[in-house]
Structure formats: C-alpha cells, structure tokens
Amino acid sequence: MVLTKEYRICMPLTVEEYKVGQLYMIARHSLEQSEKGEGVEVVENSPCESEEHGKGQFTEKRIHLSSKLPYWVQSMIPRLFYVTEKAWNYYPYTETEYTCSFLPKFNIFIKTRFEDNAGTSENCLGVSEEELANRQVEYVDIAFDEVVAKHYKEEEDPKLYKSEKTGRGVLIEGWKEYTNPIMCSYKLVNASFEVWGLQTRVEDWIHKVRILSERKFE
Questions:
Q1: Could you tell me the domains of the chain?
Q2: E strands, 51-102, where?
C-alpha cells in the first residue's frame, strides 16, 4: 500500500520571490551537508521538455546521508550508501523521485505546484478521483508548528524574524488570514516501502522527514 499525503505550506511571499529563495536554500543546504562529510553529488543536469508542462530542467543527484537515518534503519543498511534524487523542474510545477539501490522497494514520488493563494486550491495537482478518495491533506504552519529542539534556529523563526528589505514579519497567530502577499506550496507525496514488518514504520518516518525538510526549504 502507498501512503499518500498532500502537504500545503503557506509563506508570506510571491511565487516569483520564492523561486529565487529556493535556489539559495538548496545551495546552502548542499554546502552544509558537504562540510559535514556527507554531501550532494550531481550526476546529471540537463534541459528537458514535457508536452503538458513545456520546457524545464532535469537533475539527477546522489545524496549521501547515512548518519541522518534513525539507528534502527542504520542497523539494516551498509555503512556507506546513497539515495538517488531525480527532479523534473517546470517551475512553478515540479516532480521529484527518490530511490535507493540498496532498498529496491523504497520509493518516494512528489508532485509540487506553487500558487499565489493561501492553500485554497482543492486539486491544483490534478489527481484522479481514486487518489482524492485516499488523499490525506495536512497543513504545515511555518510559524507555529512545533519544531524539534535540535533543528530549531532562532534566527530563522518566523515568529521572531522581520525583513528589513520588505517589512514583512513577524508572523503572529492567524497570520495566513491577513498576510499579503501569500503563496502556497502544494506537495503530493506518495511514499512506498514494501518490506513486511517495516512498511508502516518507514512510511510514517518518511512523511515526518518531509515535514521537517519543508520547514527548512520553504
């Protein structure tokens, strides 16, 4: 069984502004991981084209992250391994797939669309009626959702940060109701790990990791 969730992450900026910020955060995160000895290796970076979405950019990366896994996963895998990320970027729409050669039945597939609204589009990713019936929608509040202490950075807390350049911030309770501009990142995440006895535990862990990564990048 594939666990499907749609995350909706609102942010106090426009889709065009986010495009610039996303590139910066991805580069910064890659540098941070490389400095810790586990980095991102770019295998391919080339133009691509889709009949539906037009011209875009395809990237394939190897993400080395052994030490980032929970101990119960580390005990099952080789000391050194990597996850393959394949991404098709037709901004403001993207598709991303994660696989692992050591775990052939492990797969994460993500469809993302960015829109200038407060998370009000009910099916902007165009999923089927069957998928809609099984879809779980989860709203991620970048300001007030709880953050694990080891991942918290005061200088990045939206409840405390105010932009000198734009004058936006700080965010208070109910900020989505009055903030302008506002945009939403819609992410449909399909996670599958078909190993008896571990499937539910791993799929739940995958979605927890996704929530954390969205808070970091969004």
A1: 3-217 (3.30.530.20)
A2: 54-64, 82-90, 93-100
